[in-house]
Design brief:
Blueprint lengths: L9 H25 L2 H6 L2 H21 L1 E2 L8 H5 L1 H17 L8 E5 L12 E5 H25 L12 H10 L1
Parallel strand pairs: 1-2
Antiparallel strand pairs: 2-3
Helix pairs in contact: 1-5, 1-6, 3-5, 3-6
Length: 177
C-alpha cells in the first residue's frame, strides 16, 4: 500500500492518533475497574499500567518541552499498587491528550535515544514527529495490554477477546472470517 501523505489530511490523521490513544486509555480504565485490588497489585497488572502511564507522561512532557526522553520516567509506585491512583493518572493523561496545544500539528521533535550509553554520542537524539510518537505510544500500549490480558487469563479472569490485540490483527481476522 502506498502512502500519499497530503498536508490537508494531516490534522485528521493527527486527531485519529490522539483519539486512538485515548480509546486505549479508556480500555485501561474499564479493565482496572473490572478487576480487584489483589489482581491489580499481586499479578503485576499495576506494573504494566504504571509503565504505560510513564511513557505517556514522558511523551506529553517532552512535547511541551520540545524534546522527548522516555528514560525520564517517574516510576510512581502508587500507580502500581493503587487502582484509584492509576485511574486518576490515566484520566489526567487522556485530558492532556485532548488539550495539549503542541499536539495540534505534526511538528518535528527530538527524542532521546533509549539505548545510548552515557557519553557514547555527543547528541544522543533522533529526529521524529509528534504523529510518529503517537503511533509508537499506541503500539506500546497494545503490546502491554496483550501481556496484561495473558496474565489475567492465566489466573482465571475473563478478558475481552479483543483486549490487547493490534488493530491490524483484528482487521486481518475479520477478513479471514
Amino acid at each position: 500500500m502506498d502512502c500519499l501523505c497530503e498536508m490537508t489530511t494531516l490534522t485528521a490523521r493527527q486527531q485519529h492518533l490522539i483519539q486512538t490513544n485515548i480509546a486505549w486509555l479508556d480500555q485501561a480504565l474499564e479493565l482496572i475497574s473490572a478487576i480487584d485490588d489483589r489482581a491489580f497489585a499481586a499479578l503485576r497488572i499495576g506494573n504494566h499500567v504504571r509503565h504505560i502511564v510513564d511513557f505517556y507522561e514522558c511523551f506529553l512532557d517532552g512535547v511541551e518541552a520540545g524534546q522527548i526522553d522516555y528514560d525520564a520516567r517517574r516510576r510512581d509506585e502508587r500507580v502500581e499498587r493503587s487502582r484509584s491512583a492509576a485511574s486518576e493518572k490515566i484520566r489526567t493523561i487522556a485530558d492532556r491528550l485532548r488539550t495539549t496545544r503542541e499536539l495540534s500539528g505534526d511538528a518535528a521533535i527530538f527524542v532521546r535515544m533509549e539505548d545510548a550509553v552515557a557519553g557514547e554520542f555527543q547528541d544522543p537524539c533522533l529526529l521524529t514527529s509528534v504523529a510518529r510518537e503517537l503511533q509508537v505510544l499506541s503500539s506500546h500500549t497494545i503490546h502491554h495490554f496483550a501481556l496484561i490480558a495473558m496474565m489475567l487469563r492465566q489466573h482465571g479472569y475473563q478478558v475481552d477477546a479483543n483486549f490487547g490485540v493490534a488493530p491490524s490483527t483484528l482487521r486481518y481476522q475479520s477478513k479471514a472470517a
